[in-house]
Specification:
By secondary structure, the chain is of the alpha/beta class. The chain contains eleven helices and 13 strands. It folds into two domains: about 200 residues, 3-Layer(aba) Sandwich (Rossmann fold), CATH 3.40.50.300; about 60 residues.
């Protein structure tokens, strides 16, 4: 299967002026300019197949948004090769933008003073969407995103959650095969986040829309993405399945056991007692040293058990550990 996105040795470098402080520094700034080179994206390679839903992760300044801006045609790469859905995004921008959808968390593509429905009607004409397709998509998105309560409300009067739902509708009215999402749940409450996540999952699974998602909310990744890419300091550090990321860098797993009685001694080989509260004991263990089933077999052979639960480290803990310990560097 041919990839819908193909990136080879992609770079984006910026020159940043060195600013001198003080009166003498200000004078020197006027007559000479010193620059430092910032490698926002520094030779990354990846391919994304049609229908994938990929999480693109990294700390602030890692290069996530710069990558997305090159993929959407907003920035011209310094060097490297980039092909998206058969287009060179920055060179064929007018034709290309009609084939993608994009939502950037704090920016709207809707007209600020117009009611939502009028903005959507205008987009029908801008994208030359046939009337039947427009009405079919609008009806579907109205239900999935629960838009009816604010369709006639000016965009400037919407809450952040309402505006995000309207922006998602606007980005998908023309049936793009590819959707770019930059922090789509930022600033939203728990209910609004869950509604957005369910919609993203629906359009990916039901319509086969390829989705590239950047986010700082790692709950988005856990609930939506099977594949993740991690970028830091402009370099791609990891590209693979979320389960593989946990396997390699997940750290300690936890086994919580409710014993049938309170035993004096509960130590077992291959695990550490992390907490104890009466007959409830929590063990921690390394996945590469002992499996959960082996640990449970040891415990059940020695003690009577009422209940137990195995917990994996959260993706947030895993990614934080990678950054803090530079495990991929």
């Amino acid at each position: 299967m041919n990839p819908i996105i193909s990136v080879h040795n992609l770079t984006k470098h910026f020159k940043v002026a060195h600013h001198r402080r003080g009166a003498l520094g200000t004078l020197r700034n006027l007559v000479s300019h010193d620059y430092r080179l910032v490698k926002a994206v520094d030779g990354i390679n990846f391919e994304i197949g049609a229908g994938e839903l990929v999480g693109y992760l990294g700390p602030n300044g890692a290069g996530k948004s710069t990558t997305l801006k090159m993929l959407t045609g907003l920035l011209v790469p310094t060097s490297g090769e980039l092909l998206v859905n058969g287009y060179l995004p920055w060179r064929e921008r007018q034709a290309y933008v009609g084939k993608i959808g994009a939502v950037f968390g704090q920016r709207t593509t809707l007209w600020w003073d117009l009611p939502v429905i009028e903005s959507l009607d205008m987009l029908q004409h801008i994208y030359h969407i046939p009337p039947a397709r427009y009405m079919t998509n609008l009806d579907e998105f109205r239900k999935l995103l629960e838009l009816d309560a604010f369709l006639n409300t000016p965009v400037r009067s919407l809450s952040l959650g309402q505006r995000m739902r309207a922006d998602l509708c606007a980005a998908l009215l023309h049936n793009p095969p590819l959707l770019f999402l930059d922090e789509p749940t930022i600033g939203l409450d728990v209910v609004a986040k869950e509604r957005i996540r369910q919609f993203i999952l629906n359009i990916n699974q039901q319509r086969g829309t390829t989705v590239i998602l950047t986010t700082h909310d790692l709950a988005d990744v856990e609930k939506l993405c099977e594949r993740v890419m991690i970028i830091d300091k402009g370099r791609l550090l990891f590209d693979g399945q979320l389960d593989n990321l946990r396997q390699r860098f997940g750290g300690l797993r936890r086994l919580t056991v409710d014993f049938s009685e309170e035993y004096a001694e509960v130590d077992v080989d291959g695990a550490q007692v992390a907490a104890r509260d009466g007959s409830r004991v929590t063990y921690t263990f390394e996945r590469n040293q002992i499996s959960a089933s082996e640990l449970i077999s040891q415990i059940s052979a020695r003690y009577r058990i009422r209940d137990l639960e195995v917990r994996e480290p959260g993706i947030e803990e895993t990614v934080r550990r990678i950054y803090e310990e530079r495990l991929l560097g």
